[in-house]
Design goal:
10 strands, nucleotide-binding, ABC_transporter-like_ATP-bd, ABC_transporter-like_CS, ATP hydrolysis activity, binds adenosine-5'-triphosphate, 240 residues, single chain
Amino acid sequence: MSQPVLVVRDLVYAYAKHQPVLNGITFSLQSGDRVALMGATGSGKSTLLENMMGLKQPQSGKILVNNIPVETPNLAQIRRFIGFGFQDANDQLFMPTILEDITFGPRNYGVANAIAIDKARELLAEFGLEAFANRSAHELSGGQRRLAALATILALEPDILILDEPTTGLDPGWRRKLAQVLLNWQGKVLLIASHDLRWLGKVTQRALVLSQGKIAIDGEIQPLLKDAVTLEGLGLPVDW
Ligand SMILES: Nc1ncnc2c1ncn2[C@@H]1O[C@H](COP(=O)(O)OP(=O)(O)OP(=O)(O)O)[C@@H](O)[C@H]1O
């Protein structure tokens, strides 16, 4: 088997003066994996993602990205490999125009302006947002803003794309559009935390389910989505 892109080993994380939220998490992600991170509210999905990005430091255990430990001295290098979509797209759009938002990251990393602009226009065309290139984020709808924010991440060509609740507030048309964009994405690993189980079933193949501080399930998503009893037991009732 090829070298894993991301490894999480025996991870323990507790907020100050609380019992651990993550209590011995182990899994690895290989190139080509498209993974749903599932779990009831408060099960620790966002906490796990923040540990992966080095935004939180675990009490024990290890996280490796492309074999490099996620630790303070390596964070700049690690973040070059990972694209992370925040729940609020507005956090990612802060330039006067969408085109400048999308070219900002690559230019910061030394990509020539003309190349960054070509890439940005390509992404905008793919997302159906060409007409908005020179508009500000304030003039976009919630769905358009979400896709524009995703374009700012994909412009950096991450190996790993991590999204936290990407469909919140999107209507069915935009949920489908977002799914299509993600299905076309060519990076190595896609990891999405969401409560939107049916949508996850269209975009991902593998499910990791967090429950009581552990990975309760690591397996194919389709059989799990059909197993209402197991889902119910994990605090994930279907159709609610
Ligand atoms: N700053 C904090 N201090 C103490 N406890 C916290 C803090 N942030 C989160 N928690 C607790 O950690 C647990 C996990 O929270 P987390 O946000 O990671 O869960 P989640 O699975 O992402 O939830 P949701 O599905 O609602 O987004 C929850 O019990 C939460 O109350």
